Amino acid sequence: MARKRLSARYPTDLPAWRLLKTHYRDDMKSSSLRALFADDSRRADRFSVTSGDLLLDYSKNLLTDVTRDLLIDLAKQASVPEAVEDLFTGKHVNVTEDRPALHVALRSKMSDQVAFETPGVIDVWRVLTRMENFVTAVQEGELRGHTGQCLTDIVNIGIGGSDLGPVMASRALRHFWRPGMNFHSVSNIDGTQLVDLIETLNPEQTLFVVCSKTFTTQETKSNATAARAWVAETLGEDAVRDHFAAASTNHEAMDTFGINPDYRFGFWDWVGGRYSLWSSIGLSLALVIGTEHFQSLLAGARRMDMHFRQAPPEENMPLLLAMISVWYNNFFGAETHAILPYDNRLDRFPAYLQQLQMESSGKGVRGDSRPVTTATGQIIWGEAGSNAQHSFYQLLHQGTRFVPVDFILPVRSSGATTARQDLAIANCLAQSEALMEGHESDDTYRAHPGNRPSSTILFERLTPETLGQLIALYEHKVFVENVIWGVNPFDQFGVELGKKLATSLEDVVSAEKSYKGRNPSTHRLLERIKKLRST
Ligand code: F6P
Description:
Distance between the termini: 61 Å
Shape: globular
Structural class: alpha/beta
Radius of gyration: 24 Å
Bound molecules: 6-O-phosphono-beta-D-fructofuranose
Largest sheet: 6 strands, mixed
Helix content: 40-55%
Number of strands: 11
Low-confidence stretches: 1-7
Mean pLDDT: 96
Oligomer: single chain
CATH architecture of the largest domain: 3-Layer(aba) Sandwich
CATH class of the largest domain: Alpha Beta
């Protein structure tokens, strides 16, 4: 049933797709942004849209009214409005795993009754209340470590969505940390992060939050086991129950690990890893920013959800952002898209969006099991502010690649002086203008071709509420793109093979077993590794 809903027809067979192809070839391929602005004094207004606290200015993109109308027609012909309803009503939009994807329920109000009949949804607020009580008890010092000291250092142990969400959001919301609380994170497989971190920590004041939907992920298990050993060694085995909390759907594994039942927070199989910040995976974040700010984050996301569900296509920010992305990806042939936030506190936002986009859309098979007929899953990359200018902007301005850009710009600083944010704003505006206008010069080395498109997302200040809106904006943008392509954004089978091979190689690397695989290069590399290890 749901399979058909997720765009049963190939997008390339839809009338709007064919018209867009002709429109691209005849009108837009060689169009000039400068000419588009010269022809329309109201372009900046007419190609801007607001939602909640966010303004999206997409006027510096290579599109016209005709393009926008055709892109909206494409969305309608690909059944985007119906797919949005399927998402919010708990239909099994994750067709390959036959379940809903209900991150929107996690930030809804109970009175919204989002997908109420889905098992687990009614428990969302019970878990949230438990989380809030736990956070308050830690922050108020009612709940302390094994030796009676306050728990001030929160260490998130997780990877992928169980790391990127809490890490990105805690950095973004640094201004809102409760005084005295600190956030740390450990994710990577090689163990050095934890080694470096525990040098700076007092175990008596440290609370590890193990975040893993499955509780089987190798990185998280090995980091959690090492952290557990450190706590047991420094404070004694009995201290483990006072210094570990967990967010997971795997209660058996939490039992085995020894997670105190009062320190466990569940969630549901319909929460995807990269959409899980809103669930108990947000616990470590909530522990540093507090429950009120965590609630504001959820409220911000809900605000964007309502806009996404209710706004007409021509005013619908996630839909427009998605269709602009489809326009560049599938008609201009753009392979990458840069995310450039002008607030250093958003320095992990590009990495967060990398997983959101690339794990969701990096697929060549559609939800209905047929191969796709278009490019999907553009490469997302980026860096915060002028760090990026002094690194890769050279390529953006004068290189041969076509790279559409999203600038993300808060106009007030969350922590630094207004004067410093003025500098950031000036740089951001200068860059989007320079990319578009270019610079003519007789000196070919110094000429800038210009005509390079960008969108700008503007808001007053980076707060829990605006961050919630921003994240939900991109979540829905990715959803719409996948509906167009007919791809299921909610599975990630592509990461499984590598995990399986790594498990089979573990014993080979540690020299107990011989390599049974058939790859000559792996074989040779293993020989060299063993040789280097033996000397
Ligand atoms: O990388 C694959 C993945 O399954 C991600 O989707 C997920 O965010 C991450 O691993 C972590 O998974 P878990 O929360 O189960 O440890």
